[in-house]
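RECORD TYPE: protein structure
NAME: PCI domain-containing protein
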Amino acid sequence: AVEIVKICYEVGDWEGLNSNIVLISKRRQQLKQVLVEIVQEAMKYLDKAPDHDKKMELIKTLRAVTDGKIHTELERARLTRILAQIREKEGNIIEAAELMQEVQVETYGSMDKEEKVDYILEQVRLCLDKGDFVRGTIVSKKITPKTFEKDQLQDLKVRYYNLMIRIYTEKDEYLNIANSYYSIFQTPQVQDDSARWMPLLQNVVVYLVLSPHDNHQNDFLVRLVEEKKLELMKPYKVLLTYFKTMELMRWSSLQELYKTELSQHEVFKGDRGVKRWEDLHNRVIQHNIRVIAKYYTCIRMVRLAQLLELDDEATEKHLCDMVVNGVLWCRIDRLEGVATFA
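PREDICTED:
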């Protein structure tokens, strides 16, 4: 059977090649291995097709004869990926993504782990490229971070976390973005290249200080301050230290110190940049409220507003938001104009 396929290719009979593949696949009591071998042989000829139409016809034939057969699931998955790449080059991202979604490679026992992860990452990328972040998120959960513990999967690890950063950025999940950048930063191949790890570590710091305060954020911040490579990035280490230290920060002074540095950073550029400046200001305010709550049992709202560099209305709003989010306990007596902390 394989010889028939070879002869058709050698004489340049592409129509005969397609028809014989179909004919062989329909034989009764055909050994499964025979179909696998003729499909594998025919796949070698895809890049040698004389024109695009003949290549597409061969792909169509091979996908048809492998459809629904467990013993050729690996070959069909590879054929589907080739077809999806062609559709993507033609500019049809939606069709390419839909083609890839048809294949559930996580259930394939014949596909090795590395190829399986690579395939799923491609599915995620195409989902994101067509703007389907919901499906992209669902598909990405087929891969767990433990998958990348082996050194030979480091390239795939970097790809995975870059895709996760795209997903988290869409939702402004700053802490998850920081964790993803840190995971890339810790990759051995990145650690050896300062041109790669330095911007990554900068991103970790920036997204971490943009993250709302909670136990996870605080633990990460405490660990990150001890990172030795931060010694080569003093401004960023100092910024982290400000948020770690339970002392009041003046927003005006912080802007003066970091406006130039951070304005050049990609995080604060573009349409999202304005919102991130606002978020940074909010984190400074929230930090200051936590500091005040630590050292005061009660304080007049007028004085609190002065310390926060805000008007009375904005001060009350930030205080209420933190109470609602469970960050601290506070009771405001509007008649007396006093805030009481636990």
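COMMENT: Strands lie at 298-300, 330-333, 338-341.
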